[in-house]
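Working notes for the structural subgroup meeting. M.R. asked for a predicted model of this chain before we commit to crystallization trials. I am recording the input and output together here so anyone reviewing the notebook later can reproduce the run.

Input as submitted:
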Amino acid sequence: MMLFALLMASADPAPIIVTGRGLPPAEKAGAAVVTLDRGRIEQSASGRLEDVIRDAAGVQSFRRSDSRSSHATNQSITLRGLGGNASSRALLLFDGVPQGDPFGGWITFPAYATDRIGEIRITRGGGSAFFGPGALAGTVELESAAPSDRERLTASIAGGSRASLDARASLVAPTARGSVSLSGAVARGDGFVPIVAHDRGPVDRPAPYRQESGAARLVQDLGSVEAQVNASAFSDQRDRGVPFTANRGSGVDMSLRLVGKGRTKWSALGYAQQRRFASAFSSVNAARTTSTQTLDQYAVPSRGFGFRGEVRPLSGATEIGLGVDGRFVRGETRERYQFVSGSPTRRREAGGRSGTVGVFATGAVTTRAATFSASARVDRWTISDGRLFQELLSGGAPLTDTRFPDRHGWQGSGRVAGEVRASRALKLRTAAYRGWRLPTLNELYRPFRAGADATAPNAALRPESMTGAEIGGDLALASGWRAGVTGFVARLDDAIANVTLAQGPGTFPIVGFVAAGGTYRQRQNLDFIRSRGIEADVSGKIGPFDARLSYALADARVHGSGAAAALDGKRPAQTPRHQLSTTLGWKDARERQVSLTARALSAQFEDDLNQRRLAPALTLDSYAAIPVTRRVALELRGENIFDRTVEAAVSNDGMVERALPRTLWIGLRLR
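Returned structure, recorded in token form:
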């Protein structure tokens, strides 16, 4: 409050323009970009980020289930069929800050209340040269809503199926030289039973969830510099529908970005992140009458901090940019395991730290008919302080106390692109690029279990690298309709995957005992994954009607040898060949609106050996808003309104887990 008062007291009465944004992307030439504005974000039936970004076909998480029922570590973002792993191969940025979990790389979607997002830009294809490591399959950029994007005060509350509650509020307080924004969200529900009805047993129960998030943002003009200060926090609690499967997480983020507004464009960003995570795991017997705890991952603390600086000394027809960035993370998993008569007998700690520092340069030349751009960067990466410690809880000498060798290396990445105006309406584009990703601490050091299956880490994993190329075109008609199509090919070398090595029963390194019917896997580098495909997007309006269609075809295949020879020619796990999203909407002058969104996924495989098939899925969502007064609207939302079974997982013994069943909402929105 004192800062707010000082800013008001020093206010300059002259008109001030603040954007709340960073520098525009430098790799825009030749890129396949889908932009979702605030109007589309607000029409989401679920109001959840992971649902909104699926408007761009090809964007997928590791599981089909969303952040109300999926295990938190199964949620990631990838594109172009380069899946097969729960770690993100696309980079999520919020106001320029990387959002992957410092330890595991997964995305905690409940941390991002969509009310505070003003725009989403989804760039398909490698962007590591400009955005940094991790953007090898694409980039999803979230921008905070500016005062011009929303009303000063908005609030909503809705009740839904299974005692669900969704409440949100946001406030924007303009100042003479900027603005202050506050937002908060709470969501809870009794949940549904994840296992499909014909496979359930006495042990199965609904999986409740409770999630909260809050954020504060200050945007202030300081003369020739604009300052943007962000602070946010979240809490996420979920259950997997059987005893001993609760997982919970929390986190705090802070960042400061300075943007120069003179003739020489520049920006400087610094940020810090802190996360805590905990999860329990169990094994359920064949009759599904008992659930036995197998692992207590009681603490996973992690931290991350980073910086980014960029300057563009030339702008206009010729643009040049130079920059440097870095991110450093550390974390560990603390676990109790090997339960006997309901009590753990052993304890494990495993973790380490890693970091990247890179320098990059961008350049672009624009003529009346064409734009050509190029970017290049070099990164220094380090993996250090890796450790695996295991001991008996009863005392005595450690069972294992391994220190893994420190490692380091260099990675180069780049992008060249061009686009040509073939006519006033048609733009042709092409691009080629290379990107890379460092293994997460989770992949390097943390074992995990999914039912009877167990997967071991691998401290010797190498970084992934992707080379790709694309060609496409965009058509913009005077009537406001737009269409784009892109053909691409991508090769992901040293792709990290969970490779099947043996079947239970048996005792295996790090993970311990795997029961009969279970599978033992280890994270390993495959030779490569090759993906080829097509993406198409169409959108436009006719009078009060609007439409959006997005389709993606990704023919991805694994090339493996040695221990992974059995995977050769298989599709990556959890990777559909076809994805489709289409929305039809109507809105009149009185702000009454209705929209229907259909999404379809072709069949995909649960496992790396392509033995457990998940059936194709088709869902239909709906949204309607009816003004009650000038400031209040009645909202009706429906998710999966025909209650189709969307298979999200299938176990070795054929047990099927489903994603969200039909969920109906009714609520009020205040503007």
